[in-house]
Design goal:
The chain has a six-stranded parallel beta sheet with strand order 3-2-1-4-5-6, sandwiched between helices. Strands 7-10-11 form a three-stranded antiparallel beta sheet, with helices on one face. It contains eight helices and 16 strands. The chain starts with about 20 loop residues before the first strand and ends with a helix. The chain has two domains: about 140 residues, 3-Layer(aba) Sandwich (Rossmann fold), CATH 3.40.50.720; about 170 residues, L-2-Hydroxyisocaproate Dehydrogenase, Chain A, domain 2 (Alpha-Beta Complex), CATH 3.90.110.10. α1 crosses α7 and α5 packs across α6. By secondary structure, it is α/β, with parallel strands linked by helices. It is globular, with a radius of gyration of 21 Å.
């Protein structure tokens, strides 16, 4: 009789490469964190999604609810816990935990409570996932990102903020609506603070292959005059406040924007995204986290693009840098 080998004692063949699986950890299972987990799962961004929250029942319930829908998504595992070990070995960590923005509050109003939370939680996450790429999503994201770099000691390439990826999406949406073309054919970035001092980079924007400032309109729609551009810029800034006033939180679009960043890292896409990172000599701007178009891949944030700017845009970017830097200094950073 032929002996049947005991599979439990089998030794893996070192010449056969093991299938590498990707792991996404999300810190904070609130509206943004849970929706980001959902968006990432629907897009098949990661093989394992871990939700960490100090509210154990919330983390476990969100993970269970998402897990019940795995049949209808790309295959993945979803776990939730109040134990920081759930984040162990993550490739990407999205930090969404923080104070909730209330109607009438600015993002800066949230800084003190959020920085205290980052100081309490982030070092423990870094301890169990030292090689992960960290993306700060919590507002005020530029100040929080700068503080997180100081608190964690991680290199500036490994930790950055979601920045104006969402703002740029809002800008493109409004431009598409104004011009009557598909949003996928609108190319424009919002730079600076993710907040009131942010600015659209009109001089480098385009619709199709047409520079935005030379756009003359289609189908009876007029050109994008200075007045139209100013109205759109205000709407980009004010839209978050409008959403928060109406439904209490922004979660869908920011989750999709976060998923785009996650995929850029996990798939090593070298995708250009306006994330918030520590600038060092960018048009003379240093020692502040601001959003400018940058290359994002498996190593985190790489080169920042020296996007052509008008004198007004460059002055606006410097004003934005001063505003963010002054807030960071007021909290001792």
């Amino acid at each position: 009789m032929t002996d049947i080998p005991d599979l439990d004692d089998a030794v893996p063949d070192p010449t056969v490469p093991r299938r590498r699986t990707s792991k996404l950890a999300i810190v904070g299972a609130g509206a943004v964190g849970s929706t980001m987990a959902y968006a990432a799962l629907m897009r098949g961004a990661a093989r394992t999604v871990a939700l960490f929250d100090i509210n154990r029942a919330k983390a476990e319930a969100e993970a269970l609810d998402l897990g019940h829908g795995i049949q209808f998504m790309p295959m993945a595992e979803v776990v939730g816990s109040d134990d920081i070990a759930v984040c162990a070995g993550a490739d990407v960590v999205m930090f969404t935990a923080g104070a909730k923005q209330k109607p009438g509050q600015t993002r800066i109003d949230l800084a003190e409570a959020t920085i205290a939370l980052v100081r309490k939680v982030l070092p423990s996450v870094v301890e169990v996932a030292p090689d992960a790429v960290y993306v700060m999503v919590t507002n005020p994201v530029d100040v929080v990102t700068y503080a997180a770099l100081k608190i964690s000691g991680l290199p500036p390439s490994q930790l950055f903020g979601s920045g104006t990826v969402l703002d740029s999406s809002r800008l493109r949406y409004l431009l598409a609506r104004e011009t009557g073309v598909a949003v996928q054919n609108v190319h424009a970035y919002v730079a600076g603070e993710h907040g009131d001092s942010e600015l659209p980079l009109w001089s480098s924007a385009s619709i199709g292959a047409v520079p935005l400032l030379e756009w003359n309109g289609l189908g009876g729609r007029g050109p994008l005059t200075a007045e139209v551009r100013e109205r759109i810029a205000h709407e980009v800034v004010d839209s978050a406040y409008r959403i928060i006033e109406g439904k209490g939180a922004t979660n869908y679009a920011v989750a999709l924007a976060g998923s785009r960043i996650i995929e850029a890292v996990l798939n090593d896409e070298s995708r250009i995204l306006p994330v918030s990172s520590l600038l060092d000599g960018y048009y003379g701007i240093s020692d502040v986290c601001l959003s400018v178009p940058a290359v994002v891949g498996s190593g985190g944030v790489g080169d920042r693009l020296a996007v052509p700017m008008s004198a007004d845009e460059l002055a606006g970017l410097r004003r934005s840098a001063d505003a963010v830097r002054s807030v960071a200094r007021s909290f001792g950073f």
